[in-house]
Amino acid sequence: MERSSARLKVFAILVLVMFAALSTRLWFLQVLATQVYAQEAQNNGVREIPIDALRGEIWTADQYGEPKGEPLVKNRSSLEVRVDKQDLEASGMAEQVLGELSAMLDIPVKQIRSDLESKLYYDYQPKPIAEFVPEEVAFAIRERQEDFPGVQVRNASVREYPMGEIAAHMLGWVGQVQAAQLDEPQYRNYGPNDLAGQTGLEVQYEKWLRGTKGLQRYVVNSDGERIRDLGGRQPTAGNDLVLTIDSQWQRAAEQYLEDSILRTRQVFDEDSGTYYKADAGVVVVMDVETGGLKAMASWPGYDPRWFVRGLKRGETCYLGLTEKCAQADTAAPLLNRAYQEVYLPGSTFKPFTALAAVKEGFANFGSYYPCPSEYVHPNDESGASFSNWSPVDLAPRTLAENLIISCDTSFYKWGSDFWFRYQNDQLGENNEPLQKDLRAWGFAQATGVDLPNEASGFLPDAEWGNDPEQRDLFGRGGWNPGGYILTMIGSGYTSVTPLQLAAAYGALANGHRCRPHVVDRVMSSEGETVVKKVNGQCNRTVPYTNAELDYIRNALAQVPVRGTARLPFLGFPLSEVPVAGKTGTAYRGTQFQDTSWFAAMVPANDPKYVVVAMVEQAGFGSDVAAPLVRRMIEKMYDIEPGGQIVSQTGQD
Fold this sequence. Notes:
This protein is α+β, with helices and mostly antiparallel strands. It is built from 24 helices and 23 strands. Helix 15 packs parallel to helix 22 (546-557).
């Protein structure tokens, strides 16, 4: 009994000791260690890592047998170094870190500092300082992260341009989203490190190209070590763009334009006593049935690959992106002159003002109209005269003949008629028939092309001319006959974009206006589904009969045969591929040389395409723009090249 009792006592003591130990441990955990474990629990958190989506690709038209034509923009991987300026400065190691980065990346410390001061990003944004970093350099930074506070290495998908500079103005470029963009509603789902289109199609079709980010979720401890994977979602690639652009025609347009400009610079301009500057130019080819742009070249250009690897100082100066240059470069190569710049159209405007004169009853197709060397507005006491391009009287001619030889003075007379209608009928501002008739072709308004920042052009009118700020422009205290007279020949203060003019000639070709567009369709990244079809909305007819349009087209078909474009088209097979076109020479004052224009519809008997060429400070339309259009049409119709890319005809 005594032994049993002793055993029970020992067991009871053990139970009490164990209970006491458990109680003590519980008290320790709940009271003494609460803060410690709470902190550890807080440090063991969920981290969400965004996964960038591949951006959609951009392809040319598919008319050569391939599903998407040729690739203009694709993707490739890049290791990128970014620096969080705030974290770097807070570490107190800025000088040391910048010095090491400079040595490892072979970038001057001064350049890195400049990148960190960029105003394109908020100060809290990690700013990119190097792309396409070698793997061994990226590994060294990651391995010694404690020595590089504020420095990040990330895998990024960057744009690749298989065709180099081709179509750069249309494509645009991609960059880290800018500080100003983050404040805009369409960028509300973007972060400061995200990429976004900045110009061209890249920004116009940003919502289609971007794709949807993926997300990976992890549980990590206080040291940032991964404890377990919580899964997530995969990114969805952006949609692809298939353009209306013909890759072969686009290459040709850019090459021929550059060739023409360089050759024109070798021609001496007797009027100015120097060689032609020929400092910029445009070629546009448009399908008149759909509004689809088959080629659109603007010169000077740039290489979009510069933005991928990072701009060098000389490139930054050339592009006009900094004021810290020894000599300012005024070339403005980032400007797409086809639709973002306006010009005096010169005599390429005459088909539309001629139709306006017919519509308002000032001219008809059966009468003859004088073509003297000078014209004076009736009852003009100042005696101011308006000169023709020819110093001799060219005798009365039909409206068609006046278009063929590009007589200015017959058009001046119709400008006076519009003035008397405005003055005598007291039509009032915003009710002028000439301006109304010209707006019906799309002038003085954006074409609606699917590219950003389009210019609208301008038509001077009484409201503008009578504005107190404009009165001195006319010298007689406001709107006067000269406004109408000069508008009739595409001069004075009239301005158009080359794309506007191409769209107007497209309407002249078949009677309806189309919205020019570069994208044909938006496709899924797999290339199987059409997400969005883009069309030219060719449902706006112009207020002229087929007979009236035929008359003008037939007249323009004689311009390359026996008119102002006869010499540039010598030897061209016009019987096989008839061309209807109009030369233009826009006078810009004594401080500039003339702008050379030619606008054509081809084939003239059943127009399918409009081809427009413009070269700044290059002289007569027949000398530069007309030969350039000929060379383009030869490419389009597989005709053996002939003639000169720069001729010397001395005609409007």
